[in-house]
């Protein structure tokens, strides 16, 4: 096929985000600086040299704000206060500055769809009663049925269960997620004004960008009608009103040179691309790639579709293998079903970790060779597998709201192993971590891998070093090369080539070419074995 040349946004000033490698930090599980069992900002600050040596360009922090943690911090009570479990606002400001001094930018998380039920607005709304202006900031409605005993509509929840909760005065309030996360009314000007002020608050403290959680959900049909399958427009997903909101946000970001990345789960590529128009979001997560199985035909189709849907609006693609919500790559690729689907998660799924690790190493080189930016979830560079958490220790509401059938997301959120011989693998010093580390976790410790040239950490460090050193990687064109069935081969600029073998038989490599990096050893004939990737210079 012809090379895909994404158009550029007009008048770019600093387009670091078009080719950056962005490391996702889940603060509760990254590093515990004060020894209380919960990760914190002190722990992150102490590990900044590790991230600098790894070679990342930015850190994305999942919410670090004041929160009851009903949903891992995505139930925000106050955007201007750091949760005391993590530290203080002064520490956050120091972290942002210290990271920038190491050449690492900071991205924070904003959750516009909802707030915590402990947020001052919601507490005031409950106290004010039916018909009060405080309730107009949310979606309060009388119930249906003879005595209002039925929910106002039948919308399905993102987390199982009902989307409505009834309060003591008889009214109901909407929450697409948990009852502790009441949805905001984005038709109210005060909601819009407050979020723009929150953006300015963090941009003024030096953050380089904002990740927008559930970016396609905030706007609702004001009538809150029942949901009817396949009848548009959808009452609460991807509504046209959202684009005016994000255009206003973009104007704020442009004042500070900031950027946005949206969490946009949409099957319609044309609708998806609308969020990436030059006056809206800069980038959005590529969930089709994340959920694609380890299959050459499916991966190539996903890559082609991703580049094609981004090209008309001039936005760079983003690539991610895992995040804080999905099964870790090593585990997923070691299962019979190598794709990802929330509905398919189950306890006790058989996994071949050796196979999954081999494929995850190859996938790392594939991902880092593609045009655009890459998001790397903490612990992926260590090859961490998904942990199976004992049911009595699971904290994720997806587990409880499913009646215990869904294992939830805690398995990918287990605190990181830093030092093999230290208590709790060096995550903290005094108290057992908030989630249990499984037996054998020390084998993945960063200090042990740092001295092993064949480790996953060594592979990521070298790949990121080469990606930064070689201008042919990052944003730019991609050309597919002729290859045998089951083999992906493509060229970037400056003679750089990536070959990934997903076929049973070893694959011949282009000649003449020099091997820059391989995810595993070549065979005796210089061919690429199954589930192995290589970077070449021709």
If you had to describe this structure to a student in words, what would you say it looks like?
The chain has helices at 27-30, 41-46, 48-54, 89-101, 120-128, 189-203, 241-256, 269-274, 287-291, 296-310, 329-332, 353-369, 397-401, 446-450, 456-469; strands at 21-25, 58-61, 65-66, 78-82, 105-110, 140-141, 164-166, 172-174, 209-212, 259-262, 283-284, 318-320, 373-377, 479-480, 487-491, 496-501, 514-518, 532-537. The chain is α/β, with parallel strands linked by helices and 538 residues long. The strands form four sheets. It has an eight-stranded parallel sheet. A five-stranded antiparallel sheet has the order 14-15-16-18-17, covered by helices on one side. A three-stranded antiparallel sheet has the order 6-8-7, with no helix packed on it. Strand 9 (209-212), helix 7 and strand 10 form a beta-alpha-beta unit. Helix 6 (189-203) packs parallel to helix 7 and helix 12 runs parallel beside helix 15. The two termini are 20 Å apart. The model is unreliable at 1-13 (pLDDT under 50).
| Cα-atom radius of gyration | 23 Å
Structural class: alpha/beta
Averaged pLDDT, please?
Answer: 94
Q: Could you give the order of strands across the largest sheet?
A: 11-10-9-5-2-1-13-12
The proportion of strand residues reads: 5-15%
General form? globular
DSSP E strands, number: 18
Low-confidence stretches: 1-13
Helical segment count: 15
- Could you describe the largest sheet, including whether it forms a barrel? 8 strands, parallel
**CA-to-CA gap between the ends?**
20 Å
Helical content band: 25-40%
């Amino acid at each position: 096929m012809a090379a895909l040349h994404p158009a550029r946004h007009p008048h770019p000033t600093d387009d670091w985000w078009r080719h950056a490698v962005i490391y996702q930090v889940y603060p509760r599980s990254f590093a515990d600086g004060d020894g209380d069992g919960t990760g914190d900002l002190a722990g992150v600050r102490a590990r900044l040299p590790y991230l600098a040596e790894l070679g990342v360009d930015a850190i994305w922090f999942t919410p670090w704000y004041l929160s009851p943690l009903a949903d891992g911090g995505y139930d925000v009570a106050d955007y201007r206060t750091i949760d005391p479990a993590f530290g203080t606002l002064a520490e956050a400001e120091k972290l942002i500055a210290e990271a920038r001094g190491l050449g690492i930018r900071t991205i924070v998380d904003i959750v516009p769809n909802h707030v915590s039920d402990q947020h001052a607005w919601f507490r005031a709304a409950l106290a004010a009663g039916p018909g009060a202006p405080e309730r107009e900031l949310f979606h309060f409605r009388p119930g249906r049925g003879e005595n209002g005993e039925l929910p106002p509509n039948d919308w399905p929840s993102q987390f199982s269960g009902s989307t409505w909760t009834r309060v003591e005065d008889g009214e109901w309030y909407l929450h697409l997620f948990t009852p502790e996360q009441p949805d905001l009314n984005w038709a109210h000007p005060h909601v819009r004004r407050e979020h723009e002020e929150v953006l300015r608050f963090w941009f003024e403290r030096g953050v380089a960008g904002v990740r927008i959680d559930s970016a396609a959900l905030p706007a609702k049909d004001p009538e809150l009608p029942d949901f009817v399958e396949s009848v548009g427009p959808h009452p609460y997903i991807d509504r046209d009103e959202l684009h005016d909101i994000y255009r206003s946000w973009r104007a704020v970001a442009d004042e500070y040179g900031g950027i946005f990345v949206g969490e946009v789960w949409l099957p319609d590529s044309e609708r998806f691309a609308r969020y990436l128009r030059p006056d809206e979001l800069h980038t959005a997560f590529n969930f089709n790639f994340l959920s694609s199985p380890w299959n050459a035909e499916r991966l190539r189709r996903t890559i082609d579709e991703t580049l094609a849907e981004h090209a008309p609006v001039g936005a760079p693609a983003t690539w991610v293998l895992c995040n804080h919500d999905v099964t870790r790559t090593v585990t997923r690729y070691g299962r019979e079903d190598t794709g990802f689907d929330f509905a398919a998660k189950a306890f006790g799924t058989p996994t071949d970790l050796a196979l999954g690790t081999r494929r995850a190493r190859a996938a790392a080189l594939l991902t880092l060779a593609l045009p655009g930016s890459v998001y790397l979830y903490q612990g992926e560079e260590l090859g961490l597998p998904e942990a199976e958490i004992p049911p009595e220790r699971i904290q994720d509401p997806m587990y409880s709201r499913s009646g215990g059938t869904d294992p939830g997301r805690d398995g990918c959120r287990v605190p990181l192993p830093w030092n093999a011989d230290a208590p709790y693998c060096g995550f903290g010093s005094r108290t057992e971590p908030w989630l249990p580390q499984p037996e054998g976790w020390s084998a993945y410790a960063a200090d042990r891998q740092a001295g092993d040239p064949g480790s996953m950490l060594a592979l990521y460090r070298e790949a990121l070093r080469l990606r930064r050193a070689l201008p042919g990687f990052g944003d730019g064109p991609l050309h597919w090369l002729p290859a045998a069935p089951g083999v992906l081969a493509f060229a970037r600029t400056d003679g750089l080539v990536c070959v990934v073998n997903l076929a049973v038989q070893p694959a011949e490599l282009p000649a003449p070419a020099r091997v820059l990096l391989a995810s595993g050893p070549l065979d005796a004939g210089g061919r690429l074995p199954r589930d192995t990737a290589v970077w070449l210079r021709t």
